[in-house]
Write a structure and sequence with these properties.
694 residues, 16 helices, 10-stranded mixed beta sheet, 19% helix, alpha+beta, 4-stranded antiparallel beta sheet, globular, 22% strand
Length: 694
């Protein structure tokens, strides 16, 4: 074990040995080691062909600079001769081959666990982490609009492989040695497993336990979050440490993979929790500074070092940030810590767009941080992610008796750096990710005041990830109670990006916010009677919801970002609300896709775990459901379904198609749908004719 720990520590420290001792600015060097045509030179409308740039960036931070002081433990990282701290990150850029044909805007896609998502969400692409072919460009939307797409590594716990973008963060040292402390690792699985990584995800590393820590470590298991922990005897489990393999190009991994083995294997659905002393913390908070300084460099640096430079200066005059789920929480946290102002006080992003982030921040800037952890109703519930403040404007937390808001630091210290914000979320965020707290007070008693630079758009009946758009059969292939939710909200994102662009560049006001409100009776407590969700045959309504708790993580947590109390002690809970439903069970007070406005089914943002995967009746994490309507009144009466049947609400398929067209037209008029997407949606309707045949 000691030998394995020594290897792990060497892996953490090795990057420092060859670090250069000279610095230009915050970004020391951007080294492009691959430059090649994208999509075989395919031309995208008026923008023309794109090129791919792949490289690494090296950064240097002054721990004493006011802009860097929010970074936990930065002062304990190794220093260069000039007192600065270095770190490196992978960088990936897709840019027009002729930068003069770009729209002058960086779209920075905050990677999710190392993975690129913008092409999936805006271009309907199925590409992976090294988009190369024309197919990887999907419908080409972002390219046709002329965006310069930028990604970089910001997570230090990822393992090399599968094209994941890595951050090589500096180690935290005390008296010249890797720091030690307590850490908690929660694991679960939906199928039997011989071993699980402490990180719960195979592509992630973990802090290696110390030998002394393993002697005193406690492993427990329980079926549900609220159940008592049952200790598993020390003789029935062991850990193995597997150092990460160095990538051929790009930055190396920071952490090893640590595997846990339990006698008899892991049971589906159960929560396994290991609490142990670990070592090898790194300064995860530099991920915020890396994003800040890379984008600032690309849009402001006029030297030949800038790969996005024209003869007249930088090609990028604007920059927008887009982040999905974990990445959206990163952006909220980025704003909260004030990182949208660079070290010179310049605005980094003109617009910031957290998507399906819900009300959360993240375990991003702490000692022994685990950035991939979130807060779910069943999994990862007690990690420090859903933390006050939840709202963009100032609000009051009576549980902690303090006022704060996500934008308060920027407004106070750098008002010129406050960006325009789109916050988008689906029905699932209200159930799984504390979404109501974005626009209510912490106890759910009143609607929050939304700042004028913020728009909030809520998508009715959609789940966390966009669906296929194809209605399911009456049975489900998922390990859930109900069929999967097929609602595809990506057309809304494309229209909103155009609206955001016009807001930034032409001061054209975007559509007004649309989300459920307490004062209008469309945002209510989550019980079935209050929401008005109908009693449907064979459908079990959830009795649980993700409700954030205020936890005591120890006396050093709030000020120094150090957890000393594991498991944390619950103190109190915040109140979450959900959208009210119509007679079909479809939600009110939100933007309705045509599939929900002109329904053939009930769409929900919740689904429940099936007994086959354990933890039955707990929320199926981030998943929604689709409950088709019956075809005829006779079918409905036989089943006892209170919803009107398809042929009771539409005369025939032509009537359905006409109502659907009008719903599309209304969204186009409201600027929530582009005409090109209107045409695509109408063309797909022919696939649904069978739903109207006897």
């Amino acid at each position: 074990m000691k030998k394995l720990q020594a290897v792990a520590v060497v892996a953490v420290l090795a990057w420092w040995a060859g670090a250069a001792k000279t610095a230009w600015a915050e970004l020391v060097e951007l080294n492009i080691h691959r430059r090649e045509p994208f999509a075989q030179g395919h031309s995208f409308g008026n923008t023309g062909p794109y090129v791919k740039l792949v490289g690494t960036a090296r950064f240097a931070l002054d721990p004493q600079h006011a802009a860097n002081r929010p970074i936990v433990d930065l002062e304990l990282a190794p220093r260069r001769a000039d007192g600065k701290v270095e770190f490196t990150a992978d960088v990936y850029i897709l840019a027009p081959a002729d930068l003069r044909k770009s729209n002058g805007t960086i779209l920075y896609d905050v990677n999710n666990r190392g993975n690129k998502l913008a092409l999936r969400f805006f271009n309907d692409a199925s590409s992976g982490n090294d988009p190369t072919t024309a197919e990887d460009a999907g419908n080409g939307f972002l390219m046709r609009r002329g965006y310069i797409l930028v990604w970089s590594g910001w997570i230090g716990e990822l393992l090399p492989g599968e094209g994941r973008l890595l951050l090589a963060a500096p180690p935290v040292l005390e008296n010249g040695r890797p720091v030690r402390g307590v850490a908690r690792f929660e694991m679960s699985t939906d199928k039997p497993a011989e071993w699980l990584p402490l990180s719960r995800r195979p592509g992630h590393g973990s802090y290696p336990p110390t030998d002394a820590g393993l002697e005193k470590a406690v492993l427990t298991w329980r079926m549900r979050e609220i159940d008592p922990r049952v200790v598993i005897p020390r003789s029935q489990w062991r850990v193995e440490i597997h150092p990460p393999q160095s990538p051929q190009t790009g930055v190396p991994g920071t952490l090893p993979q640590v595997r846990l083995y339990v006698a008899g294997g892991f049971r589906p659905g159960y929560l396994y929790e290991l609490i142990t002393e670990v070592e090898g913390a790194f300064v995860q908070g530099v991920g915020f500074a890396g994003v800040r300084d890379l984008v600032s460099f690309l849009r402001y640096d006029t030297s030949e070092r800038n790969p996005l430079r024209l003869d007249t200066g930088p090609a990028a005059r604007y920059a927008y940030a887009f982040g999905v789920s974990q990445s959206g929480r990163f952006l909220r946290h980025f704003l909260y810590l004030g990182f949208n102002a660079d070290e010179q006080g310049r605005r980094v992003f003109d617009a910031v767009w957290p998507h399906v982030a819900g009300g959360g921040l993240g375990f991003f800037n702490h000692r022994f941080a685990q950035p991939t952890r979130h807060n779910g109703q069943h999994e990862d519930h007690a990690y420090p992610a859903d933390l006050f403040p939840f709202t963009y404007g100032e609000s009051y937390d009576p549980l902690q008796q303090r006022r704060d808001g996500i934008l308060e630091r920027l407004r106070r210290e750098h008002p010129q750096a406050v960006p325009k914000i789109f916050h988008t979320q689906t029905s699932a965020e209200y159930w799984h990710r504390s979404g109501s707290l974005v626009h209510t007070d912490p106890l759910g008693t009143s609607d929050a005041v939304i700042p004028p630079n913020v728009r909030i758009y809520a998508f009715a009946g959609a789940q966390h990830s966009p669906g296929s758009g194809r209605l399911p059969q009456t049975t489900t292939q998922l390990p859930t109670d109900l069929p999967a939710n097929p609602a595809d909200y990506r057309p809304l994102l494309r229209a909103l990006l155009d609206a955001l662009d016009a807001w930034v560049k032409a001061e054209q006001e975007p559509p007004a916010s649309i989300y459920p409100l307490i004062r209008e009776g469309t945002l209510v407590l989550p019980d079935q009677k209050t929401t008005g969700f109908p009693a449907l045959p064979g459908v079990r309504y959830p009795e649980v919801i993700q409700r954030p708790q205020l936890f005591d993580y120890g006396p050093d947590f709030a000020k120094h970002g150090r957890i000393t109390q594991e498991p944390p002690r619950p103190v109190a809970a915040y109140t979450v609300l959900v959208p009210k439903c119509d007679a079909d069970g479809n939600e009110l007070g939100m933007i309705r896709l045509p599939d929900i406005a002109v329904p053939l089914a009930t769409y929900t943002g919740w689904n429940l775990r099936h007994r086959s995967i354990g933890a039955e009746a707990m929320l199926a994490n981030l998943l929604g459901a689709c409950i088709p309507l019956t075809k005829t009144a006779n079918d409905r009466q036989k089943l006892g379904d209170p919803r009107r049947a398809i042929l009771e609400r539409y005369r025939d398929f032509d009537d359905y198609r006409e109502q659907y067209r009008r719903a599309c037209d209304a969204l186009v008029q409201q600027r929530f749908l582009l005409d090109e997407d209107r045409q695509r949606l109408l063309e797909k309707l022919n696939e649904r004719q069978d739903w109207f045949r006897p």
